[in-house]
Amino acid sequence: MNLEIRNIIEIWPKWKILQIIENSSSGTVYKACKEETEYTAWAAIKVIRIPKDESELRVRKQEGMDDISIQYYYQNVIWEFLNKIRVMELLKPLNNIVRIEECYIKRRENRPEWYIYIRMELLEGLLSYIERKPLSVEEIVKLGIDICEALKICEAHNIIHGDIKPDNIFVDQFGTFKLGDFGIGKRMENSQTKLYQKETSMYVAPEFYRDGVVGKTAAIYALGIILHNLIGSGRFRFPFMPSYSQLATLNLKDQALYRQLNGKSASTLCGLGSTLEAVVAKACAPDPRIRYQTAQEFQRDLIQWRDFSANKIWEFPGNTLTKCISFGQMRIEEDSVSGNNPGQIMDSALAQSRDMIGNPMPKNTVSGAKIAIWIATGFCVLVLCFFADILY
């Protein structure tokens, strides 16, 4: 029995560890249960070690820190974790936020080493959920609506999540998508590999690299990129690749990251035949002025698409909408250079798309009129023949 499990049993003696759910750079997650008289309670227990390992301590010493400085450094890290856990406890009653039940911090004797134990509701991670059950477009939109609900709560409490990515999205047994972590699983920069940094940087808004500031629309950008990836390929790969048909290579990922950091638009989604392309394009626009300014606006358009899609009352002639979106994206790039207001252009493209949904093109109007005329003509002929038989 390792140290982590011994500590869990000591902290929560009624809980039994069943298995390891996840073991990653952000910590280890255990599946646990508690037997009661009439029911069995389930939980996930996340264990985060600070520092991650001995090599991290060596790095601190190479930076010139002595034992007292190292202890002070990691105590500040602990306080940062505690503040983020308090945020999640504040949001515990809400349906689209991962529920934190208890948290406990234990320091190892005579060593600058801490263990954070977090007991939370048992959920399935989005990545494993997709491997088991690929998402339909309707389910992807539901994911967007659910996470927007969580972001609306964050906005109401003036909270910036700062780490929206697939690893921090979870699914319960009823298919409800929930937002978790709030930076709890973030490690110091030297405790992650460059490859991992590159994999997660695709969800970071370009203005962070340019200005070093995470604005209020950064979470909307990250969610837009997640939806873009799922709709475009069903998997999480860089949306700035030259083509989804190409195999992902390290060189292509470098090119994709370069495009993102330089404020290029994500690759175009094709074949949806609905406003969903325009909605996603606006959410993950490189210019924060073009994006949805609130999660409520983003959620509104996703709900509108869902409702019209469910009722199947929209029709689009040919490829009009795709041309409309492509035109809007072209104008955005041009206007971001000329200095005009690019947000109005994307809003115009969305407005045209909404008009097309609200006023669907009639199908086969001409052929229907012809059929009506033929029926009326045939009826008149039958009437004339009937009276002709009577008279003669």
TrEMBL record:
Coiled coil: none annotated. The chain crosses the membrane at residues 371-391. The keyword Kinase applies. PANTHER family: OVARIAN-SPECIFIC SERINE/THREONINE-PROTEIN KINASE LOK-RELATED (PTHR44167), SERINE_THREONINE-PROTEIN KINASE CHK2 (PTHR44167:SF24). Keywords: Kinase, Membrane, Serine/threonine-protein kinase, Transferase, Transmembrane, Transmembrane helix. This is Serine/threonine protein kinase. Residues 15-303 form the Protein kinase domain. It comes from Candidatus Scybalocola faecigallinarum. One of its GO terms (molecular function) is ATP binding. The keyword Metal-binding does not apply. Pfam families: Pkinase. CDD domains: STKc_PknB_like (cd14014). Gene3D superfamilies: Phosphorylase Kinase, domain 1, Transferase(Phosphotransferase) domain 1. One of its GO terms (cellular component) is cytoplasm. SUPFAM superfamilies: Protein kinase-like (PK-like) (SSF56112).
